[in-house]
Amino acid sequence: MSSHKPLAGRVAAVTGAAGGIGSVICNRLAKAGATIVLVDIREVQETQALADALPGDNHLAVKTAIDDSSQVQELADLVETRFGTLDILVNNAGITRPVAHEDLDGLDDDLIDAIFRVNWRGGFACIRAFRKLLAGGDGGTVINISSIAATTAIGSNVAYCASKAAINSMTMSLARVLAPEIRVVAIAPGWVFGDYAKRVDPAYLQAQIGQTPMGRLATPEDVAEAIVGIVAHLPLTTGAIIPVDGGRPLGVLESV
Fold it and tell me: pLDDT tens, 147-193?
């Protein structure tokens, strides 16, 4: 296996592939030699344009709503027919909407259900559908994109934080029962300077940077690099929640 392309010959599926973080993950995995299945709810023409721009070839774009289990199973069947295997699954797709934590009425039932349906159930449905393919060959790796909001309980809304905590629990549960054929790891970024962060008050983001020991926000590239590192270089790691947050939870809000 080439040190420059440590994922050569492997097939990776990335959900939420057309988003700011997802597209960077796809590009980094492709640079590492993987063939990418770009999974997104957007029209396939848009996602296919991203696939065509990736390094390497034979990449596949598929429109799939991951909160529809029948569509996810169709996706798994398509991947099996096209590639015969899946080595890496990145559960990156997720949704949220800012609602102040004290605004209990603003966090309506429809939003709560949508967040858990996409952020948690969608990821679980993908693992369930791809289990057979991931367990084949030399075994596969699932990377769940979590957040430090799972443990700090500070995030865009209460349901979002809870959905990320549920992802962490699922990661540990499935790492136990799917081993040794399948590894399951979560990456927990802090603020990521992607599409969502660009819509947030710059003064708020600067305050977060000021409270982060490493002095900067994570980038999509940081998240993507962590995924490659886990898959290619940490073969004994499973059930772990790996932070990519610059040490943000160590920061203090004020001097004491």
Answer: 999 999 999 999 999 999 999 999 999 999 999 999 999 999 998 87
Does 129 fall in a domain? yes
* CATH code for the domain in which residue 213 is found: 3.40.50.720
Residues in the chain, total: 256
Query: Residue 97: inside a domain, yes or no?
Result: yes
Give dist(CA 31, CA 38) in Å, integer.
Answer: 15
Establish if 238 belongs to a structural domain.
yes
Tell me the HSE value of 58 on the side-chain side, using a 13 A CA sphere: 11
Residue 160 annotated in active site: yes
Residue of 124, 130, 160, 191 marked catalytic:
160
Number of domains in the chain: 1
pLDDT (0 to 100) of residue 208 = 84
In a domain, 101, yes or no: yes
Q: 255 pLDDT band (50/70/90 cuts)?
A: very low
Model confidence at 58, in pLDDT bands (50, 70, 90)? very high
pTM of the model: 0.94
82, 55 in Cβ contact below 8 A?
no
Residue 2: its pLDDT value, please?
52
Cα-based distances in Å from 23 to 27, 40, 52, 129: 6, 10, 12, 23
In which domain, by residue range, is 79 found? 11-242
CA nearest neighbour of 5 among 38, 23, 28: 28
Percent of the chain topping pLDDT 70: 95
- The side-by-side arrangement of strands in the sheet containing 241-244 is 60-63, 35-40, 11-15, 88-91, 140-145, 182-189, 241-244
